[in-house]
Design a protein that fits this description.
Blueprint: E1 4-8, H1 15-27, E2 33-36, H2 41-51, E3 60-63, E4 66-70, H3 78-82
Parallel strand pairs: 1-2
Antiparallel strand pairs: 1-3, 3-4
């Protein structure tokens, strides 16, 4: 498994979606790195490049360099295993 990264935003209006992503990841005991994109313009640019969308907003999820999608679409349970998101 690559390094699971969750791009989040401490000042965005998507806190509920971000909380749901963390709940799913934590519930599946997945290790991940939270990256607060408003803190760094470079991190925001990195998130948008990986998402392939210059207007992408948090949360966005990557497994290593592979873009996994928007946090609201993150599966749990067996589906997470199929994406390689399990420990």
């Amino acid at each position: 498994m690559g390094s699971l990264k969750v791009y989040c935003g401490s000042v965005t209006g998507s806190r509920q979606r971000q909380a749901e992503v963390r709940r799913i990841l934590d519930g599946n005991r997945l290790r991940y790195e939270l990256i607060d994109v408003p803190v760094s313009e470079g991190r925001l640019r990195e998130m948008r490049e990986k998402a392939g969308d210059p207007q992408a907003t948090p949360p966005q999820i990557c497994n290593g360099d592979e873009y996994c999608g928007v946090g609201a679409a993150l599966p749990s349970g067996p589906a997470a295993s199929q994406l390689g998101l399990v420990n």
